[in-house]
Batch of 2 targets.
Target 1
Amino acid sequence: MTNTAYNTERRMDELDRIPDQTVIPWSVAFSVSWGSLRRRFFRSLITMAGVILAIAFLTYMLVTDDVTNALILVNQDQLNILLQKADVDIIAATGTDKRMMLLIGLSLFTCLVGIINSMLMSVTERIREIGTMKCLGALSTFILKIYFIESALQGVIGTLIGLLVGFVVGFGISVHSFHGYVWQYLPVVEILKSLGISAVIGALISVVAAIAPAQWASAKEPVDAMRVEQ
Amino acid sequence: MTSEPIIRTVNISKIYKIGEEELYALRDVSLEIRRNEYVSIMGPSGSGKSTFFNMVGALDKPSKGDVFMAGYRLTDLSPSQLAWVRCHNIGYVFQSFNLIPTMTALENVAIARIFSGRTPSEARKDAAEALGQVGLSDRLEHVPGALSGGQQQRVAIARAIVNKPSIILADEPTGNLDLHTGEEIIKLLSDMKTNFGITIITATHDTKMLSASDTVVWIKDGRVDRVAARSDVKIEVGSIDGSTLA
Ligand SMILES: Nc1ncnc2c1ncn2[C@@H]1O[C@H](COP(=O)(O)OP(=O)(O)OP(=O)(O)O)[C@@H](O)[C@H]1O
Ligand SMILES: [Mg+2]
């Protein structure tokens, strides 16, 4: 006989209208994404590697540029010898040159394509999972949220590591070439500005890379989960 | 008691276009399934069982005809309402389990509960209870890869019942299991019917899995071929075996 302790929570035929599905808050979506990132740690590392490399390269270029520009302005004989030894063109070096900008731009673009590609792959791998979640009652916006958070988190962590690596390497090489002069004429404001620019670019790249795969993932129909592909 | 059947399909057809050809995966299927009934859909591979499940489970829309669930016509519902129905009214069990490989048994069940609006901690508590009901209290922290096929299917059943649905849709739930484990899963589904009053709709190729059914529906080439009460089926088991194996 039917157990009275069990009652279907809301029987459809007792409702005047079928309610809308509950929207899952960002905080809960965050914990789901975080769990998924943690468990696919190596997969996430590969995605992050793209961001880390691009941002480290950008930060390195900007920071060494800041330091050499500051030292050129000092215009002191002994320092100029050091600058020449480090292959810095004292006369032409007014701001970052165009070829460098192109190189940086290209590397950032490559990195963007890499992250999108790697996010798309991680979404493709999980189409069944997305379909299953939709069968369990997930709204498209929830799928959008978790994939957005996942790629944004990878972007943020990647950017932070990239900033650190780029700064340490750039600054380290400067100190190695120009010794104490770096400390003496340290362009603090410029360096901070460069770090800021790198962080903003890193965040932008990650968000742009996140939107396409998340949109694609959330548009999947639940029937996809039903297709048995062994 | 309501007289409205929990599922009613009215002349549903599903047409797939392959180039110029029109393929009828389902053709004018009209069926009624009553509350607390255990229905088995039988039919050879490609006969349209999964297509029928997708329509009845609000996962796909028929090309023609209507599906009514507890009196509601599914095509009248918005995407958000359909998600509500999938979450609260239907539990799905798949042939290949469809558990999320990176989540533990507990998390796999809890996520379904989270979709119904529970907080993660409430969801974990309810998930543990549902896993207890399928006899897996000692496997909460195992990931699917560390569970046997039968245990994975139990987790899937716990996930299907955690939101206390009125229907469980199981598409070949025993397809990837050996005979003995398959029979245990059928017994478990049947217990869900007797203990909780859940309507069970299941598809199978295998006549040995019919023992728990109240009603057996044969589908052939997208049409309902025959509907019979199980008591009528028993007598002719020999002949069914012959025809399904052919
Ligand atoms: N997405 C699709 N596109 C085209 N044809 C499809 C699609 N899905 C199913 N079909 C066709 O519809 C028919 C019914 O398929 P369905 O999956 O419902 O069969 P089934 O009874 O579940 O078979 P099985 O026992 O092998 O699971 C088949 O001929 C199949 O090829
Ligand atoms: Mg099938």
Target 2
Amino acid sequence: MAGIVGYGAFIPRHRIRSEEIARQWGKDAAAIKRGLVLEEKSVPGIDEDTITISVEAARDAVERAGIDPIKIGAVYIGSESHPYAVKPSGTVVVDALGIGPEVHVADFEFACKAGTEAMFVALGLVESGRVEYALAIGADTSQGAPNDALEFSASAGGAAYIFGKRDLLVDVLETYSYTSDTPDFWRREGRFYPRHGGRFTGEPAYFRHVTSATRGILKKTGMNPEDFKYAVFHMPNGKFPQQAAKRLGFTKEQMETGLVVVKMGNTYSGSSPTGLAAILDVADPGDKILLTSFGSGAGSDSFVLQATELLPQRRTTGRKVWSMLDTPLRYVTYGEYAKLREKIILND
Amino acid sequence: MPSPGYWRGIPSRLRLEAVRCSSCENVVYPSRRICPHCHGTKWEPAELSRTGEVVTSTVVHVAPDDFAMEAPYVLALIETPEGARLMLQVTDCELNEIGPGTAVNLEFRRIRAEGNSGILCYGFKAVPAG
Amino acid sequence: MREVAIVGVGMTHFGELWNDSLRGMFAEAASGAMADAGVDHLDGLYVGNMAAGQFVGQEHLGPLMASQIGMAGIPATRVESACASGGAALRAAYIEVASGMSDLVMAAGVEKMNDGADVTQVLATAADQELEAYHGATFPALYALIARAHMATYGTTEEDLAWVSVKNHHHGAMNPKAQFRREVTVEQVLGSSKVAEPLRLLHCSPVSDGAAAVLLCPLDQAARYTKRPVKILGTGLATASLSLADRKSPAILDAVKDSAVHAYKMAGVGPGDIQVAEVHDCFAIAEICCIEALGLVEQGKGGAAARDGLTALGGKIPVNTSGGLKSKGHPVGATGIAQAIEIVEQLRGLSGDRQVQGAEIGLAQNMGGSGASSVVHIFGRV
Ligand SMILES: [Zn+2]
């Protein structure tokens, strides 16, 4: 059986509070915090992007896996903010970590599910025996247009997973995908900010795919919500995953460890993978974990996972998600945020 | 920095690859042909730890155009446990908390960009440890 | 080797010379030097220049400048050692005359910095591009790193740095060629804007345009050109690692010390014999480090020298009577020649209000990069 042999996450150290964004646009902060269940979000430094976040997250993953990076035969990065429109992010990661050059590399994009998409493919390649180890990363420095609801959530961070067949930290018991053409959120080529269909992003998009994928994998495995210690659903805001959980019969207790969105925001392709990393930071051997991502456009990938005996001893190195979230460097003003996110038009 | 020069620097900039002199054992970063300490020419590969200590530092307020958006930023001479010294920016810090002896970790960052349409150049910056 | 004298000097004003071009400034300084010596020909020309290719897009200055003064055809070469280009040109001219190769050789320096280039970026090309400039190092930043190291090692203070600027502005206020002919106070220096901490704007030399030229000939021919030749007693050029990271201590400028040792030995004098000195104060900390490395004060005592009046006019060893790079201006390629001119004029007794009475032996020290090149010349009254 194949599974996760190493994992890591990285979250930039700057934050902006929901109040500060609301203040900028004359919105009611209390109503937004109540409606979206978002307190603050991470903001990338001017020197951070999907590539740097990927390298830092993957470095912890390699260290926890305790493997020679040269044995990694495939590297996939899922993101909707690859720094180059043409030229892979993955090649930088490969050279920075000493992987390759005998390695298959690709950048993935599927809105917010590109990270689990990378995990799905990496797992499949390892299971098939095509490669010994495969590295999958979900990372983003998410874009949200100024004065759009997305601006309260679009944040930066990511997580990396190495799949292999020996010395597993987490067994992958099952996977399931559910996909349909649903234009709820998109960004056309050459455009700076994504657009979305407002409330159309809810029922026909997020909820339909997340609940269908989750029900699908439960049926496929014959498991029930109460069989899981933890669950994580894609987190476009704090409200949607909790509503989805409730509909599916998952409890607050199962959800709270992975519900990083309240403090981190929505790291798009990095969202549910980072939630999973937060769970792996504390899970006990034998604990079962459900992961369901969502990517607009639209689709969901579900994974049923189980922590092994090896997990606690391997996670003694590396950065923990909640400790990164609990120790921000500083809170920026909207003006600083606009500068860091390069929203100000400058002279050449 | 145009692509060829950036590309040649990938081993040292992206992986902190250094060399250890086979005769005097000094670690030299980045690699070079002749040892500056003993004139030796035999080398073994070495990799720098991603940790170090500030030797001396400054806060740059007036930056070249390419770094204008980063100013003010800390620039420091960092010594790694192997004895190699690197000049790096210190990022994610309070500007005035950095001085001689400050312990740092090195993190992967975007160092510079060639305008709005040129290549992106990566490497390491220091971040205060702990 | 023949003994060599300087027999003619000429220079432009230093400053923001919007009306003057690179070639025009050179011609003004060069023809001034030729007129001073009463000559209408040259056997050779060395043009010190750091970065005309980047500042104004012009390389190949040797033939260009020779033709600007009607000397097309002579051997003419550009010499580049960053901000030490002028001093290096002087040394090249000295060697050519001393060797017997040529008799009448001009050493000139010129820089046009105010022509629209990103000056901070251009100057940074004198630092290690791969190891320093890549990470956003600027020249003020490199000297700020040196300053912080000096402060940590020797207890030098920001106020000590400010006193260097105060002293040099005091001198420069008396120099009709200076870019800034005005005094500044310690409070003004410490209240000026931050450039690279601890260095503030008034710790830094300005961006300047200007040119300077001197004429060299064998000492035994000097009487043909002037009644007041000044002899070059010694020359020294030394280098250190371009990158600060490769030096034993960032607080110590080994190249300056090594270049001085050579020049002192050749001249047969020591630091105690120097009565007036021009020292490369591109930043206040540089003057402090340089007077230590030159042996004019004890290692670690440079910080107090300006504050205590030791290096002011009337002090034990007046340093930068011209106003230094700080007040006179720093058109980088021209600086080394302008420093030599200040010492020549002091030894000729022509420095007016700035005259160091009875000066017979003087020294000029010109530096490139963060101290990676240093050129020292020692001059004597004949
Ligand atoms: Zn050696």
